[in-house]
Amino acid sequence: MAVPQTHAALAGAQNEFPSVHIAARRGWLALDLPELWAYRELLYFFVWRDIKVRYKQTVIGAAWAVLQPLMTMLVFSLFFGRLAKIPSQGLPYPIFYYCALLPWTYFQTATQTATNIVVDQQRVITKIYFPRVVLPISAVLSGLLDFAISFGVFLVMMVYYHMVPTRAVIWLPAFTLLAILTALGVGLWLSALNALYRDVRYVVPFLVQFWMFASPVVYPSSLVSEKWRWLYGLNPMTGVIEGFRWALTGHGQPPGILLAASSAAVLLLVLSGLVYFHAMEGTIADVV
Q: Model's pTM, two decimal places?
C-alpha cells in the first residue's frame, strides 16, 4: 500500500505547484502588460534597490540630487546669462535655466542608468526568468525621486522671486509623462545596444552632452527660425523643456508645433525601442 500513497502524494504536489511553460512570445511588439503587472513587486524591488545603491555610503546623500542642477544653473546664469546676454523670455536667469534643468537632469540620469542596467544585472538575467523590459523601466522610474527633490528646490526659488504659477501648471503632469517616455525610449535602445557592444556606455556621455546643446536648455527655442521650428521639435526634449518652462512660469507661448513634433518623435522612439528590445530579449542572456 506504500506505492499508491507515494503516487497520491506526488499528484498532490503537482497540483499544489503547477508547472509554468516559458516560450518565446510572437509578434513584432509582444508587450505583455498582464505579465508586467504580475511582476510589479519585482519592479518595485529594482527601483528601491537602485535608489539605495545610488546613495549608499555617500557623504551628503540625496543632496546630490540638488547640487547637480543647482550648480549647473549657477554656471549657466553667469556665463550664458550675465555675460552672453542670451534672452530669457523675461524670466530671471536662475528660473529660466532651472526650469530646463529639471527635466534635463532627470533625462540625463535616467538614460545613463538605463544604458548600464542590463549589463549590471547579468547575473540575475542568466539565472532566473522575468520580463527583461522591467530593467530599463526600473531605471527610468528610480530617477523620479531625484526629480521630486529638485522640484522642491524650484518651489523655494519661486517663492524667493515672488512668482506664482499660472493655470498652465495643470499641464505639468503631461510634460512630466513625456519626459519619462522619452527617457524610456532612449533607455530601451541603449540598454539593448550596450548588451551587445560594451563600448556604448562610453559613447553615451558624449551623446548626452551633444543632445543638451541641441535642446533649448541654455537658450529659448524662439531663437530658432519659425520655418524650421517643426524640425527642431523632432528632438523629443525640445517639447519637454519648453513645456516645463511654460507650465511652471506661464511665460512664452504654449509649445504648439514643438509639442506636436516632439510627441510624435517620443511615440516613435518608445515603439521602436520596444520592438528592438523585444527582438534582442531572447539573446540577451547569452551575450551579457
A: 0.86
